[in-house]
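Allow me, if you will, to draw on your knowledge of protein folds for a short while. The matter concerns a single protein, recorded as an amino acid sequence and a row of backbone structure tokens. Kindly check, if you would, that the fold set down in the tokens agrees with what the sequence suggests. You will find the record immediately after this paragraph.
***
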Amino acid sequence: MTDHRVPVPDRTRFLERRQFPLVRVVALVGLVVLWEIFTRIRWVPPLFLPSPLGVLRSGGQMLVTGELLGHLATSLQRIVLGFGLGALGGISVGLAVGFWSLAEAVGNPVIAATFPIPKIALLPLLILWLGIGEASKVAVIALGVFFPMAINTFTGVRTADPLLIRAAVAFGAGHLSLIRKVILPSALPMIFAGLKLGAGTSLLLLVAAEMIAAQSGIGFLILHAQNLMETTKLMVGIVVLSCLGVSAHWFLARLERLVIPWKP
């Protein structure tokens, strides 16, 4: 008997997620080249938009003198502390609110009422409470990270497979064992989505806090350069912020693959 199979084109190929690493690099390089061309033909005066080479040169000089490293180290210290505290608090509260109904009854209205408040609007109040030092800046970053983490963790917990939960309970799993072995792994994709969202939010709040009440940091560098009309230094600060954002996204994406290897 002859096999008469008819080849059928795969109509779902457009759904495949490809990486295109070369295209990503070309897009970034193309943007920088376009920027350099605009500045060389002087469509925009160098005072308003310095060239990429000028920014690179200025950044190199600031590295040699230690000016850039000082600001960067201060900002990294603030953002790591604020991001860590906010993420830890958000995950803990999200787990509790998602798992226990009493915690949900208390936590959901509070989160719904306080989440829409712009966190930078709370900075003057935080300065009154905690002083003008590091604590107020770390607190505003932690608040900005806390809410996306709490909401995403809550959503991840509530969307855990009920069949797996019932199976674990049927095999005698206690509350903590159920959270550790079933609910937390199920919520990990949403938790990492919250971490990526929180990383961007923390950068925004870092710059805003350092522009209001700081004597060092990348936000202070940008504001100080703007006041002196040193646009090249200002662009150095913006490029450093962009590099921080890309590095944070790259690190979290690699960590996500390591922690959740089963995620496609």
